[in-house]
Amino acid sequence: TINVWCRSSLISQMTFMFNITEMVTPFLIQYINNSEKVPKMDHFIIPNFPVKDMEHWGLITYTKIIYDANQYPTNRKKEIAAIVTHEIAHQWFGNLVTPSWWSYLWLKEGLASFFHTYIIDKIFVDWRTMDFFVVDILHYCLRIDKGKLSPITFEFDNFKRLDLLSFIIYYKASTILRMLQNTITDEVFRKGLIIYLATHEYGSTTPDDLWNAMQTVLDKSDIPHGHYKIKQIMDTWTNQNSYPVVNVMKNYTTGEITIFQKCVCGQKSNNEWWIPITFATQSNPNFSDTAPRYLLQPNQNITFKIDPNDWIIVNIQQIDSSMVNLNISRYMTMMLTIVFSSEYGSTTPDDLWNAMQTALDKSDIPHGHYKIKQIMDTWTNQNSYPVVNVMKNYDRFF
């Protein structure tokens, strides 16, 4: 049973929160095929409680989780849904299965953060929560994590350090889990979590336990993966800080594409990653297929050919946590071609925001062949908040 406890004066403002608990709990139980291990779940709202929101076995406490349509904007619903879903997810990721040490705290916080986005996106489709995730979380990670932060798996030395690491524990960890889900498919990801929870319930784990569970399912699937192991890929994302810049070079005569990587830190770092490479072209403008065409390995270049007259967009829906670097002049032409072409309808917002993000991230934008206003005009028909949010973060150009 699910119970919500609060002051009697707040009962009328708890309806939305209660509805969230009744939708999220059965969804998560079905997804991970693992029932609740407690006979009841109590949600307590305790004003001025020193700990903001906290999950316990069968008890979740909040300080303020009310919603009144006459007092709060609609966005408050999204905040409440995220908080409640995050804490419910901890009943499994954190309580049922616990990280073996603080160094692996992301195993519970990263998974809970991923699921509060994933589940809300499935329940409230119109909210487009995953679109917001890309610009609010993933793009934020790309702006902040440029070599000065610790890896997701870090050497733990004192509890004060945990506050400083909250960014990578919650945010960056959820972005790489989303990348893994799209790389191995949601079905393999889900079955891997089922094995992970069933194998280690009431126990403690390390990242290798999660990767082994995923690998077990992947090995039984029909997904080609003979040249890599999940641990091999994911260790490069969890044990290293910063992120890669994926450089895409096109020979406009032959149509040959060359892809290679460098750390965003430049020569200050030798970090390299296993990177899922997805792309769409003018001849094949499929922006919904996020299965990787290639895996870019450390110390490797990838080459392939497309029609010399085609545009190409790499990193569809910003699935991996990298920045794609293309020639700016050609890039602007490509963006304008896509937006005003007949294929525009099949382009997902994530791909367009990723394109805009990359273009605006260039601090040395040349002005001879176009104006910044052209970038803005490209998006005049866009009324989505995420687009506005991207532009807001780059007001330094204007």
TrEMBL record:
Lipoprotein as UniProt keyword: no
Keywords noted in UniProt: Aminopeptidase, Hydrolase, Metal-binding, Metalloprotease, Protease, Zinc
Record InterPro entries: Peptidase_M1_aminopeptidases (IPR050344), Peptidase_M1_dom (IPR014782), Peptidase_M4/M1_CTD_sf (IPR027268)
Required cofactor(s): Zn(2+)
A GO BP entry: peptide catabolic process
GO molecular function, one term: metalloaminopeptidase activity
GO CC annotation terms, alphabetical: cytoplasm; extracellular space; membrane
Record-annotated Peptidase M1 membrane alanine aminopeptidase domain positions: 17-237
Family stated for the protein in its record: Belongs to the peptidase M1 family.
Protein name per UniProt: Aminopeptidase N
